[in-house]
Each structure stands twice: as structure tokens, then as C-alpha cells.
Write a structure and sequence with these properties.
Chain A is α/β, with parallel strands linked by helices. Chain A has twelve helices and 15 strands. By secondary structure, chain B is of the alpha/beta class. The model of chain B has no long low-confidence stretch (mean pLDDT 97).
């Protein structure tokens, strides 16, 4: 049996990163994720690692770029407004095919927004982390244990595919405390990085880490090659959880804290005889299309429960090919939908679409 | 007998710089310093955005292309990844270092980050075709200051060595130029010292090199070299602005 420790989600991410072999962290203070920096500041000097508080989010992501260029595991963390500042760096990391782990503990927006939980950076994470054609692997934890597990997995995926993995958490996940089994974390085998800029040792031609291609044909080639790699990821790395979906006529879709709330509502609806289940995407990109294709064959309605004005709902509509109506159940600005609100949406969908007994 | 040869730390790639541009000279000086110190195999260079954006093709050591202005932050990461075994330099222009990347520059200096910074000050944005730089002189005509830089409207040039010398952090700050053989020899010594400081673990060393841009200044190469003497040096005096180790020696 594993030893469980009580940790905040943010601390679990930090410790899991260290377990994954990350010895370099760069960050800039911003609520609600600063515990990650504080944890790293304490731990890194004791294990021969490097914690450095950067002068800005922009500097932090570029320090990440520097360490990533040398092939070492490296991470930064921030919250929504800070992630916007990192957008430039995320694009360069993608263009130079560098692995890194970036944590976004989301808060309400736009602008300075608030400091309470949100999921309104879904579009930014899954579509437009920065300029240009690129993707990030986006992982959405729904427990403190998953905060730890997905951090380790995030590093492994980043190395395997030479790209950024983003953990898209929210203020609730970052701040809440739950028991975590750190000794259950499994770190993948190290991957060779012959492309790393660590000095030629006068034994090889120089390596160049670069995202500039003035020849359009050459640039096009890098884009196509990158998207071939993304296709492999879409085929092999999709993660999701299904809850009571076998006989479901109504399908709730939610990730992170919204999934936790929705589970309670689903249990209550089941007691009332409504055949409702849930698909919880764990990879937001690649989005789990297959379970939705299957669900669209027997579900009469989908409900996207989000802490945003309706962002994931677009992926749900795409994945279900609009075969059934998709409605939105949401709160924003740092508010969280209550189980009662989600239950009301389920009941409404059952009434409208005949999902009730 | 070979009396003059290309430094080993330069590749054979033809450089794209304009006729009369002094980037080529400074590249050579950096490469000579790397050769003489025997550090090519452990050196990692960080190229900027600007005219020297493709410096990664010209230096034979491992190279990284950074986002505009972010080279000191990238270099910080590279250095901290393996402080014992990485020699790291950035090569940046005035727009890169003193405008969009000023925060990264100041903070790397304040941390006394153990890196070497080669700073090309030619008082103009070259790659984009000659716009006003943070170091363009008062009255200087550029594409975006067509009536001359009006200091009432867009402020004054930034004197990087003077500004950084107020910080307690940096080890070595010096301003040189490469507009004649004598000045080139001084510049070479400064660049070599800036690398030697890093090898010795002394910290942040920045060499500001007043450089020419005949194309965008609208001058012949020869006139451009004179312009450095006549216009740039009076505003940007040459010399050592900070040398902490030398100062310590003196107080002993």
C-alpha cells in the first residue's frame, strides 16, 4: 500500500516535477499558483536544482527555452494573465521543437480579471497559445493526485514529441488539499536528445536551435512535419474518463473542477431515474473524439459544463458532428456551477429530449 | 606558411552583411577570442533578432536563435543548465538589447549572470530598413524620424554602459569601436576579457561595440567609419565603465 500525503494541488505539481527529474524552474509570482514557486524555491537548492525568480513571465519562458535547448527537463508555471505573456515563448518553443512543461492554474478573465478559478483559457490552450500553426499537448487534472500524475506524464510526452505540454488546471485544483500517493508516480525512460545545444566538444557539427526559416518551402516543410507528429499524438495519446456512459441518454461533458461538480449532479439525477453519464476529457488537446462518436449513437443530448462562456462546447459539437443538441451549463468570473445548477440542466435536457423514465 | 586565416570558430557560410558593415569584424573578433581561449567545444551562442539574426550560421559552436530581446533570458537558462561546463554568449543589436529586451538586459546584469554579452550599437534598426533605434542620436534622420530625432517628442538615446554601471551586479562593462585598426585591437582585448571573466566565474560582462551601418545611414563605408568618430563617440564615450575585479585589485 502506498503512503499518502496531504498536499495542495500546486505543491503536488511541484513535487511531481522534481520526481520527474526536473531541476530547473523559472517563474514570476501570480495568484493562484504561487505555491509552486514557493515550493521550488525551498526544494531546488537542497537537491542541486535551480529555482530562479524571473523579472517577468516573458523572461521566465525564455529561461525555459534556454534550459530546454540543452535537453534538460524544465518548467514554468503561471496563471491566465501571465500565460498570455508567455504566449510569445510558447510559439518559439513550438517553432524550435523544444520540450517543456508549462502550468496554467487558471483564474477569471479577460484582462486582470480576478483571482478565483476559471476555465476560460481553454481556447488559448487548445488553439492559440501563440502566433503561428502549432499545438501543445493540454492535460486537465481533476484531482490533486492527477495534478501529480499528469505533471510526470506531461514531461514524458514533452520529451517524446519535442513540444510543450501544458497542464490546464484552475484555482480550485491548485488550492485544494487532497491525499496524494507520490510513490505511485511512474517516470518514463530518458530519451536521447542529440539535437541539444550543450557544446560540440569539438566532436560534431554545431547544433542550432532555431525557429527562423526564410525560405518558405523550408518553413512549410517544418510545419507539415510537425503536424505529422501531431497526428501521431492524436492517434496514440488521447486520455479521458467515462462515467456511467453505457446506458446514458444524456451526456455531461466536463473537465477539471467542473467534472467533480458534475459527478455529484449525475449521481443525484440517476437517483431520479435519469439515464445520464459523463465524458471527462483528460487530454483537451488531443480532444477525445472517439468516445463522443460512440456516445452520439445513443445520447439524445450533450451538456457542456464549463467555467467559461462556452469554449470546450465547440469541440463537443465538432466531435459529435452535431448529431444531438449540445447545451451549455456555466458560471464565469471565478464562480463555480453548483451541483444543483448542473442537475437542473440535466433535468431540463431530459425533459426536452425525452431522456427521463 | 599561413599568415592570416579564418578563425576555427567561424563556419564557411558566406555572411549576408552589407558592404562596409562592421558585424563581420566583430564576428571575427568573437571567434578569435573563442579560438585563443580554446572554448569552442563548450561554447553556446545566442543570436538575436536583427541584422545578426543569422549569426547562428556563422559561428561554429552550438547556437540558439532567441526571440527578439530575450537573448539574456535564454542565455540565463543555458548557463544555469550546466554552469560548470557551458560558456554562453549573446550577440545583440541596439533594438534587441536596449529597446524590446531592456528588462532582460538589466536583470541579467543585476543578477551578475555569468555570461558574455556582445552589444552592437549602430544607432539604427538595420534589418527592417533603417528605423529609429533606442540609441539613435538626437537629430539623427531615420525612416521613422524623417525630420531628425526630436528629443522633445521621442526622448533621448539610451547609454547602456552608463545605465548598467549604476548597478551593483555587473562585473565588466566597456564601450569600444571597430572603426580603425587601433580601435579593433582594443575591442579584441575587451571581447577576450569578457569571455575570460566568464571562464573565471566573475560574472556579467558586456562589451558595447559602436558599429557602422553605411546602408541605412546612407553613407559610404569610409564616411560611416568617420561618422563613428565625429558623431557617435562624442555621445557615447569609449572606455571601461565598470571592472569590479580591477577595482578590487586597486583597493588592495
Amino acid at each position: 500500500m502506498s503512503d499518502k500525503v496531504l498536499m495542495k494541488g500546486n505543491e503536488a505539481i511541484a513535487e511531481a516535477a522534481i520526481i520527474a527529474g526536473c531541476r530547473h524552474y523559472f517563474g514570476y509570482p501570480i495568484t493562484p499558483q504561487t505555491e509552486i514557486a514557493a515550493y521550488m524555491a525551498k526544494r531546488m537548492p537542497k537537491i542541486g536544482g535551480c529555482f530562479l525568480q524571473a523579472e517577468s513571465e516573458i523572461a521566465a519562458i525564455n529561461m525555459v527555452y534556454g534550459v530546454a535547448s540543452t535537453g534538460k527537463r524544465v518548467m514554468t508555471s503561471s496563471s491566465s494573465p501571465g500565460i498570455s505573456l508567455k504566449g510569445e515563448g510558447l510559439s518559439y518553443l513550438a517553432g524550435a521543437d523544444l520540450p517543456s512543461l508549462v502550468i496554467n492554474v487558471q483564474r477569471g478573465g479577460p484582462g486582470l480579471g480576478g483571482i478565483q478559478p476559471s476555465q476560460s483559457d481553454y481556447f488559448q490552450a487548445t488553439r492559440a497559445g501563440g502566433h503561428g500553426d502549432f499545438r501543445m499537448i493540454v492535460l486537465a487534472p481533476a484531482s490533486v493526485q492527477e495534478m501529480a500524475e499528469l505533471t510526470v506524464k506531461g514531461f514524458d510526452l514533452a520529451d517524446k514529441y519535442r513540444m510543450t505540454t501544458m497542464i490546464l488546471a484552475d484555482g480550485t485544483m491548485g488550492q485544494m488539499m487532497e491525499p496524494v500517493a507520490l510513490d505511485e508516480l511512474k517516470v518514463g525512460a530518458p530519451i536521447e536528445k542529440p539535437w541539444a545545444t550543450v557544446g560540440t566538444k569539438m566532436e560534431r557539427e554545431h547544433n542550432i536551435v532555431n525557429s527562423l526559416f526564410l525560405d518558405p518551402a523550408a518553413l512549410e516543410k517544418t510545419n507539415f512535419e510537425r503536424y505529422d507528429r501531431y497526428k501521431t499524438i492524436e492517434e496514440n495519446e488521447v486520455l479521458y474518463e467515462e462515467y456511467l456512459m453505457e446506458d446514458a441518454e444524456i451526456c455531461v461533458v466536463a473537465f477539471g473542477i467542473a467534472a467533480r461538480v458534475s459527478k455529484n449532479a449525475i449521481d443525484e439525477a440517476r437517483k431520479q431515474g435519469i439515464k445520464v453519464g459523463m465524458i471527462r476529457p483528460i487530454t483537451l488537446w488531443p480532444f477525445p473524439v472517439a468516445p463522443f462518436k460512440k456516445a452520439a449513437e445513443h445520447c439524445k443530448a450533450f451538456i457542456s459544463v464549463e467555467l467559461s462562456m462556452g469554449q470546450m462546447i465547440e469541440d463537443v459539437r465538432l466531435a459529435t458532428e452535431c448529431k444531438a443538441p449540445v447545451t451549455l451549463c456555466n458560471r464565469v468570473g471565478g464562480m463555480i456551477p453548483s451541483p444543483e445548477q448542473v442537475l437542473a440542466s440535466i433535468c431540463e435536457a431530459a425533459k426536452t429530449n425525452g431522456g427521463a423514465n | 606558411m599561413v599568415v592570416f586565416d579564418k578563425p576555427h570558430a567561424l563556419t564557411d557560410a558566406p555572411m549576408h552583411y552589407c558592404p562596409g558593415c562592421t558585424h563581420g569584424i566583430v564576428h571575427r573578433l568573437v571567434a578569435e577570442a573563442i579560438d585563443e581561449l580554446g572554448i569552442e567545444g563548450k561554447t553556446i551562442g545566442v543570436a538575436p533578432v536583427g541584422c545578426s539574426v543569422m549569426a547562428y550560421n556563422y559561428f561554429a559552436c552550438d547556437m540558439i536563435e532567441a526571440a527578439h530581446g530575450r537573448a539574456p533570458a535564454v542565455a540565463t537558462g543555458v548557463k544555469r543548465a550546466d554552469p560548470e561546463n557551458h560558456i554562453v554568449f549573446t550577440y545583440q543589436g541596439d533594438g534587441d538589447l536596449a529597446s524590446i529586451g531592456m528588462a532582460e538586459t538589466v536583470h541579467a546584469a543585476a543578477r551578475n549572470e555569468n555570461i558574455t554579452v556582445i552589444f552592437i550599437n549602430n544607432a539604427i534598426y538595420g534589418m527592417t530598413g533603417g528605423q529609429m533605434a533606442p540609441t539613435s542620436l538626437p537629430g539623427q534622420v531615420t525612416q521613422t524620424s524623417p525630420y531628425g530625432r526630436d528629443t522633445n517628442h521621442c526622448g533621448f538615446p539610451i547609454k547602456v554602459c552608463e545605465l548598467l554601471s549604476e548597478l551593483d551586479g555587473p562585473e565588466y562593462l566597456t564601450r569600444v569601436t571597430v572603426n580603425n585598426p587601433k580601435n579593433i585591437r582594443v575591442a579584441k582585448a575587451a571581447i577576450k576579457k569578457a569571455f575570460q571573466n566568464q571562464i573565471d566565474g566573475k560574472g556579467f560582462s558586456l562589451v558595447e561595440v559602436l558599429s557602422s551601418c553605411p546602408t541605412n545611414w546612407g553613407m559610404t563605408p569610409q564616411k560611416a567609419l568617420q561618422w563613428i568618430d565625429e558623431k557617435m563617440i562624442p555621445y557615447y564615450p569609449l572606455g571601461v565603465y565598470k571592472d569590479r575585479s580591477a577595482a578590487k585589485e586597486e583597493t588592495k
